[in-house]
Amino acid sequence: MTFVASDADVSADAVVGEGTKIWNLAQVRENATIGRSCIVGRGAYIGAGVTIGDNCKIQNLALVYEPASVGDGVFIGPAVVFTNDQYPRAVSPDGELKSASDWTPVGVTVLEGASIGARAVCVAPVTVGRWATVAAGAVVTKDVPDHALVVGVPARRIGWVGRAGVPLREEGGVWTCPQSGERYREANGALERIE
Fold it and tell me: 171 vs 43, 168, 176, 178, CA distance in Å?
């Protein structure tokens, strides 16, 4: 059953999937689409036209500005920010206040299963790959490969993570998840699962 807190602001033009919960003071703008069984935390913002997949968790005070696209099973931590303006200015060169028609929004894309840690910032346009983990407080300015573990300002890869989110261990050219036992091989800066 879908739940929307009485003080949440959800546009009548938004689509909210079955079983999704939208908590206090969250705002979901027009034409946003949120999938099934998601949680949108207190004070979170989902911009106009943003798409959120199924089974996502968007924690308190996260700001997901349009035109972001979020895949299934994504975790967005507390106070995360997805930007949407490459060259932000309040005014034009002649000093006039800029309007929405004075710039072209660009989005952040987060693929299936990825996790974005608390207070991380993703500076659009970037893509965070499948099952990747962005550490808390990181600032992502470049695309993040699938399964990468990135930290810092600017974010840089320091390792690999599996689908369980646990850092992988490398032995003899094979990366193994200590929790699930899944195995991966690295080639050309990318990781692929060994079936």
Answer: 44, 10, 8, 12
Count of C-beta atoms within a 10 Å radius of residue 4: 16
- Spatial CA neighbour of 50 closest among 86, 76, 89, 18: 76
Longest CA–CA span in the chain (Å) reads: 61
CA dihedral 117, 3, 32, 41 (to 10 degrees): -20
Virtual torsion, Cα 131, 136, 137, 143, nearest 10 deg: -10
Tell if the pTM clears 0.90, that is, is over it: yes
Sign of CA dihedral 122, 69, 58, 192: negative
H/E stretch holding 184 reads strand 183-187
Q: What is the Cα 140 distance to its own chain's centre?
A: 11
> Using one digit for the tens of pLDDT, what is the confidence trace for 173-186?
899 999 999 999 99
